[in-house]
Task: structure prediction
Amino acid sequence: MNILFVGNSFTYYHTMTGIFWELCHANGKDAAVEEITVGGWYLHQYTDPADKHGTAVPYKLRQKKWDFVVLQDQSANPAKDPEDFFAASRTLSGWAKENGAKPCFYQTWAYRDGTEKLASTGMGYREFYEALKASYEKAAAENDALISPVGTAFYRVSLSHPEINLFEEADDYHPTTAGSFLAACEFYKTFFGEKPEKLFVPEGLTEEACRILREEA
Result:
């Protein structure tokens, strides 16, 4: 299985794709993972040939046959400018399908509740989460794509297990290692239809925390 991730720091923080690969390896799943990620980038920038990274996706798609292409937009854009997100989603999903790949949307999360970062969006925690969820679900439906509901898992864990910190203290929106592990578990379930039986425990996490996050995915 060949999987290409296209996005930004929410994809590459704490080597989320590497954690996903380690879970695949531990459970005997044959998966090759590559990524095109630039900090802060919007999906529409990957569709713009004038952008310095605007040819990266077509180039990578020509290199091999992909099974899945994962699409992750700038963290607030699907909630604040859904039409921009939908337009870029159509283009990138079309490119993926031309390659024979199934598009998959990476539903991201609301910023940490009660913070200035969240307040800067003009939305509350649940409101922001629901706006992101609605946009990603609409994009998936319109493009006959999968969706990995990572943001829903974040929302649930933040309420049920507040002792597990999913957000970096420095900015209240990037994922910690725990957040990236939760995302990796969610992708594992999305692609294989089951939770990883065997765990890979990243540095800085306990096995107990990983088990809780796996069960929440």
